[in-house]
TrEMBL record:
Pfam families hit by this protein: DUF2934
UniProt-listed InterPro entries: DUF2934
Protein name as annotated: DUF2934 domain-containing protein
Region annotation Disordered: where it falls in the sequence: 44-72
Length: 72
């Protein structure tokens, strides 16, 4: 899955994390990476999402078969 987390979102979250940590000097890369990981995890599909998508796909295929639609 391609990441759609924008740099501005990472920057904002990294800043929040930096403030929460007491604004320490010299740890910008640490907060950037932590923010990037948090935001990427939020965007990743859950097991429930995957099952819901497969159910939708399965029902869409059966509808095409019932209507005689020969397209893939």
């Amino acid at each position: 899955m391609a990441s759609t987390v924008f740099e501005g979102h990472i920057r904002s979250r990294a800043y929040e994390l930096w403030l929460e940590a007491g604004s320490p000097e010299g740890r910008a890369e640490d907060f950037w990476e932590q923010a990037r990981l948090q935001l990427t995890e939020q965007e990743a599909p859950t097991q429930e999402d995957i099952f819901a998508d497969s159910d939708e796909f399965a029902s869409a295929s059966s509808v095409k078969a019932e209507t005689g639609d020969k397209r893939p």
